[in-house]
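Tokenise the fold.
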Amino acid sequence: MDEKNSSKLIMDEMLNKFEELFGAGGDIRSYFAPGRVNLIGEHTDYNGGHVFPCALTMGNYAVARKRDDDIIRWYNMSYPKDGVQERSVKGLAPNDNGIWYDYQQGVLWALQQKGYSVETGYDMVMCGDMPTGSGLSASASIELVAAVIVRDLLKLDISMEDCAKIGQYSENNYNGMNCGIMDQFASAMGKEGHAIFLDTATVEYEYVPLNMEKKKIVITNSMVKHQLAGSAYNDRRRESEEALKCLQKVVQIDSLGDLDEETFEKHKDVITDEICRKRAKHAVYENQRTIAAVKALKNGDLAAFGKLMNESHVSLRDDYEVSCKELDILAEEAWKLPFVIGSRMTGGGFGGCTVSIVEEASVDEFKKKIGDVYREKTGIDAEFYIADAAEGARRLK
């Protein structure tokens, strides 16, 4: 089934479920917020560096209708056992449960914390077509679908860029996950056929066309789910911050993203903790890799772009230590194939996906060869998706 028909089927099923649960009639509206894949620039977003993600055609769909009271009722067709979740928009309080509706609640809470008037509730049915725990940022997609629903139904005067910031604020402060801005920004601000070159220190950004003639971006799902909030993710952020504090004693910087490789190498010994030094090295070098990769893409040098992708994975594996055996197998086996331009883990790590640039004519061969060796080495069947850069979160016509 093609993408257009698949999304229409999802929308039809959601509308039927909505009418079954909440009744027909009234102004029922449809929404979508995409997941994202990051081509390069991992764990740099909270270190003041650059990232290069694009929004995906996969994400979370929703249908919603405004209510006349302060009650919100949510149902997720991807988690039917959770049933209808009912809350008041008043009295929402932070937690770190990491359940899908907590990300919805977090956005409403964050909007209120930032002074927006959220006094009226709504009924909603949502459904996702992306795998959870895959590192494609299902959480940001849920946050942004909530943001566009509330923005539209309650007529809030808030830009999509600020919706992204609200999503990050809610995940940091409501859900206890100290993520950077990348995931929410990509979901909010995606553009068809383009990746986003984002400076996370200034939130300045540029849309860069993904001119990859006769190449495809292939996402390989290791099927190992990552659990970031309860994992070492927050530890990595703390270790990076400790390294920054040490460096700030000898060089005037606001973030690790302010350093180039030469300056870091000159002053790195001021970081006495070896682990923190490795974290800082990744943040600095990865930021410079991302800048160089975007320049290479603009110049049509995909070979250089791919080489930098490979180097990114090695750094994430060895210096930042957020890869895992399964991701390493997927990346390292991809490097052996002559029709693979570059391959690396993508997302927060500890599981999830790799992203690879593959010759279009060899995509099926890539799937078979990588799938076979991955099954042989892990006993797991990987899943493959073609990544098409898509539009950001929005109300659907």
In short: The longest strand covers residues 53-66.
